[in-house]
Amino acid sequence: GDSVTQMEGPVTLSEEAFLTINCTYTATGYPSLFWYVQYPGEGLQLLLKATKADDKGSNKGFEATYRKETTSFHLEKGSVQVSDSAVYFCALRDFNKFYFGSGTKLNVKP
Amino acid sequence: DAMVIQNPRYQVTQFGKPVTLSCSQTLNHNVMYWYQQKSSQAPKLLFHYYDKDFNNEADTPDNFQSRRPNTSFCFLDIRSPGLGDAAMYLCATSRDENRGTTDTQYFGPGTRLTVL
User: What confidence score (pLDDT) does residue A53 get?
Assistant: First the structure.
């Protein structure tokens, strides 16, 4: 079945450091891929998405490229801020169902 | 602003006492989802409505039921809450016009359920 695997956290970085959160997926079809962010006590917010191979999603300085050959959708940001501290979920959509990874907590220290 | 609203944000109930959580949306989306999220875990899909069609996940306990009286509202009923049902419950919506073309999900802020 479909599934998403993402790196375990927590990830702790200093402000302005480079961020990578790894995400790989297994799917039978051609899924759309998403990154969601969840701040403490809140629901999930869409961060970025990519709907086909080689698409790059980007938002708020975050980027992720849909790599079909490696079944990956790694999240990157060149310079993180304290306000980026949150839990990040990788997800895929196959038909009208969504599958989420277990989440990676990011802590950014000043 | 178009959005997904969940009430209440925090709900406390007693062991075995039925509880209903509510979700409404102004996005006019035809698909609505309920997820259970326990601490430090991924959201777990309980069920979803595609228009009026109810789709239950195979491993969702019978203790969990749902109602969707109209496009805008969806309810999660927990008939006899146990201590293990304490969690954050997330409602989400999406638009799917051709079964299988659903794109983004939009989430509400969640209801945190405590069972005493």
Answer: 92
At A7-49, the pLDDT tens digits run 888 999 999 999 999 999 999 878 999 999 999 878 899 999 9
Between strands A23-26 and A75-77, the pairing is unpaired
Stretch among A18-32, A85-99, B2-16, B89-103 having the lowest mean pLDDT: B89-103
Does the distance separating the beta carbons of A46 and B48 come in below 8 Å? no
Q: Is B102 helix (H, G, I), strand (E, B) or coil?
A: coil
Is-contact B108 B23, C-beta < 8 A?
Answer: yes
Q: Which residues pair with B32 in a beta bridge?
A: B49, B93
Contact A104, B42 (CB under 8 A): no
A96 touches chain B (CB under 8 A): yes
CA distance A97 to A37: 19
d(CA B19, CA A73): 39
Is A89 close to B104, i.e. CB distance below 8 A?
no
Place of tokens 């019978």: B62
Q: How far is A74 from chain B (nearest CA, A)?
A: 17
Partners of B24 in the β-ladder: B5, B73
Considering only the beta carbons, identify the residue of A43, A100, A103 that sits closest to B108.
Answer: A43
Q: Nearest by CB to A96, from B4, B40, B96: name it.
A: B96
Distance (Å, rounded) from C-alpha A67 to C-alpha A44?
A: 24
> What are the backbone dihedrals phi and psi of residue B85, each rounded to the nearest 5 degrees, phi first?
-90, -5
